[in-house]
Amino acid sequence: xxxxxxxxxxxxxxxxxxxxxxxxxxxxxxxxxxxxxxxxxxxxxxxxxxxxxxxxxxxxxxxxxxxxxxxxxxxxxxxxxxxxxxxxxxxxxxxxxxxxxxxxxxxxxxxxxxxxxxxxxxxxxxxxxxxxxxxxxxxxxxxxxxxxxxxxxxxxxxxxxxxxxxxxxxxxxxxxxxxxxxxxxxxxxxxxxxxxxxxxxxxxxxxxxxxxxxxxxxxxxxxxxxxxxxxxxxxxxxxxxxxxxxxxxxxxxxxxxxxxxxxxxxxxxxxxxxxxxxxxxxxxxxxxxxxxxxxxxxxxxxxxx
Length: 305
Fold this sequence. Notes:
The protein is an all-alpha fold. The protein is 76% helix and 3% strand. The protein has a 3-stranded mixed sheet with strand order 2-1-3.
């Protein structure tokens, strides 16, 4: 990568400088990471093993689980390494690479949540035509489109950020490398990079949020037009898990990228929530309230016995 920086590495001052607190945080985040791996891998295996879950909804859910594995693995291993190390450094190239994948996987999740909202709308508004409308070719196209748009968006941001020069401060008051954290370390004009990040955040993340909001407005009108109470309750229950995941993701991720970078505690909390906690919670959210997933687990366990 082309970079004219005098600084060759950064120091990640993220969560604490107290060795005892760092030891406790290492155990906490190691447990969270292991639960994330176990939960998402289990959900992936259940969806793959049970033929009753071979539907568009669970195809997208499997993609979300795989994405959560990737998103968490971009930041948590380095976080765990730094909690045990006295020298909490990362190269400039490594920092930019991590920022790229954080932005790319987060952007893909934003697109995928939008696709899942559309999937719920089709399932509720046209249940008889659901299988025909959400065919495999369309589902694959929507997933590949989500990954492609997000990675292209991230690539544009990183290419602009490559022109930044880092020739002074090395300390990043964060546990991982994200684009907003790099601007305060640059000794050149960051307005171009900041403008690109702001525009992409508004168009990509906020644009997807508006599409999700519009989908749920349509879903709400469809549900209210139903005569049977049981039908309404079933429709609401199929959306509750997805709506919870959307609130968790947008409640922290969008705020992190739109708020000023001051190295505050709120920034760390928002980043920890969407990059560490949310990937662990998503399989729990989609399993506890989902009778079909529970039934699939029971069927698989009976076959094992």
